[in-house]
Amino acid sequence: MTLKIYADRMSQPSRAVIIFCKVNGIDFEEIRIDLSKRQHLSPEFKDINPMRQVPAIVDGRFKLFESHAILIYLACVFPGVADHWYPTDLFKRAKIQSVLDWHHSNLRRGAATFVVNTALAPALGLQRNPQAAAEAEKHLSSSLSKIESFWLKGSGHFLLGSNQPSIADLSLVCEIMQLEVLDEKDRNRILGPHKKVQQWIESTRNATRPHFDEVHKIVFKVKERLHTSKEKSETESGVKTALNSKM
Ligand SMILES: N[C@@H](CCC(=O)N[C@@H](CS)C(=O)NCC(=O)O)C(=O)O
Known about the structure:
This protein is α+β, with helices and mostly antiparallel strands. The protein has helices at residues 12-23, 43-48, 67-77, 90-105, 107-116, 130-151, 167-177, 184-191, 195-207, 211-246; strands at 3-7, 28-32, 56-59, 62-65. The protein has 10 helices and 4 strands, in the order βαβαββαααααααα. It has a 4-stranded mixed β-sheet, covered by helices on one side. α4 (90-105) packs parallel to α5. The N and C termini lie far apart (70 Å). Bound molecules: glutathione (GSH). Glutathione (GSH) binds at residues 11-13, 35, 40, 52-55, 66-68. Belongs to the GST superfamily. Theta family.
């Protein structure tokens, strides 16, 4: 029975799970749960994940949600997954777990809240919330500083001083990749000061090519669409202002 992955590629943790499977040659069927069409709220999907979030998997009779748990399961169950993704060494494993737990209440909270309250708000039918965005930016910048000064300290190109990526690198980098949809000036202000983080994103991308780029295509497509519609509305409002000033 083929592993089923319920995912929306606009979701950061969904992308991490899909890239992991592709990089490790794990056969799977991708079942798209389109969040913009609210398919995650359907009764059929509730049966897969009662929490109504993506990603979720079904492996035979076994169902699982929460991306970190899914990545750990896949790394342990499928033969052929290289040890560096989730090392058998228990000390290394515990450190990876520590990064993953930290991620959920820090980087993820800051990044997702900032993007939803800025670039993605109109597309999601939400009002931009500048106060929530400002709070989230503080959280996000502080998380990036901690990645730079703590998790990436050491000689390797990856988290915890490693020379090869683990599931934590993939999970955190996929989270950061959503910043691509931001306005260039917002993205540069937030990511610009963190040179090590930028190098690490590139290292993770290189280590998981071509799948990383393929799975992230949708993010760049959304970015293009958001920016084209923003330019269009700015041009329209510029034309209106010009017309009004002539009246
Ligand atoms: N902790 C979860 C987070 C899952 C999550 O937040 N998924 C989002 C997409 S990135 C979702 O399904 N949102 C729909 C909703 O919460 O209504 C994980 O790592 O899998």
